[in-house]
Amino acid sequence: MSDIDFNARIGRLNERVTAIWGEILDTSELVRAIRGGSVDKALYAIYMLETYHYTAHNARNQALVGVRHAELAPYAKFCFEHAAEEVGHEKMALHDVMSIGLKDHKFDIPQPLPSTEILIAYLYWVSFTGNPLQRLGYSYWAENAYEYINPLIDRLRTTLELQESQLTFFIAHSDIDADHFEEIKTIMRRTCKSEQDWVDVERVMETSLRLTGAMLEEVHREYELYRSGKSRRYAFLDVLREAPALAEA
After folding, report:
1. Buried-most residue among 38, 116, 231, 235 (CB within 10 A)?
2. What count of other Cβ atoms lies within 10 Å of the Cβ of residue 2?
3. 244 occurs within a structural domain
4. How far is CA 34 from the centre of its chain?
5. 109 alpha-carbon distance from chain centroid
6. d(Cα 83, Cα 63) in Å, to the nearest integer?
């Protein structure tokens, strides 16, 4: 594929990502709450626990693609290397939850919210079936999301007075993902050869991003249920209301 054709394809993906993020950011109740400062530590905890759940599966479904298509040597190697680098990242999300006042309290982590389970299931589905290249669509936006979410992270950090030690998942990932994004574009140049490849990549990119947007909305709904006392799913977060200040890990 020529540089012109490849750049045109990447430009198309970037346009779609920007458009979808724009829809999410413009309509999301979670985003509106964060921007308005009407959040507390409980929302951060709920969001990071859902992040913990889906992140715990990323290395596994990434490796699954490599297992299914080991004959595609460059792509299989890419999948296995990226899977290895993703192992354990969910522990950073859990660390950040514990750091805001929960490290001295025992609790059972709730099962993922339904929308989080749908996202997890979808990523396994696209890793196990269909075009092996299609999972690159998820990686493409997920490894390059910071220009869209950094303003929200900064707002949360200010509102909740979070320290860097309480944002390890986002801070560590921002550096790692910058390198990954360049590697993703390199492997796409090498492997995405047909029109169908690009169609499949874009479809998974859009679907997985929209499913992530749905997860964000359910996080906010669950947070509102918790605050109103209509759900005790996150009853263990009551201790955060009693904490006088955020406790660094």
Report:
1. 116
2. 7
3. no
4. 17
5. 18
6. 5
Residue 63 neighbours by CB under 8 Å, 6+ apart: 79, 80, 83
Residue type at 165 in one-letter notation:
S
Q: How far apart are CA 135 and CA 26, in angstroms?
A: 26
User: What average pLDDT score do residues 232-247 get?
Assistant: 75
For the full predicted model, state whether its pTM sits above 0.85. yes
Q: What angle do CA 65, 67, 73 make, to 5 degrees?
A: 85
Total domains, the chain: 1
Q: Which two tokens stand for residue 182?
A: 């360049």
Q: What end-to-end distance do the CA atoms of the chain give, in Å?
A: 49
What is the C-alpha separation between 181 and 225, in angstroms, rounded? 37
Pick the closest to residue 17 from 196, 149, 131 (CA basis). Answer: 149
| Separation between Cα atoms, residue 98 and residue 168, nearest integer Å | 12
Query: Does a structural domain hold residue 28?
Result: yes
pLDDT (tens digit per residue) in 62-99: 999 999 887 888 999 999 999 999 999 999 999 999 99
What pLDDT band is residue 37 in, cutting at 50, 70 and 90?
very high
Average pLDDT over residues 42-51: 96
What is the number of other CB atoms lying within 10 angstroms of the CB of residue 70?
13
Between the alpha carbon of residue 191 and those of residues 49, 88, 201, the distances in Å are 35, 28, 11
Q: Which residues of 51-64 are buried (b: 16+ CB within 10 A; e: fewer)?
A: bbbbbbbbbebbbb
Answer whether 8's CB lies under 8 Å from 14's CB.
no
Question: Which tokens in the block code for residue 82?
Answer: 């990226």
CATH number of the CATH domain containing 34: 1.20.910.10
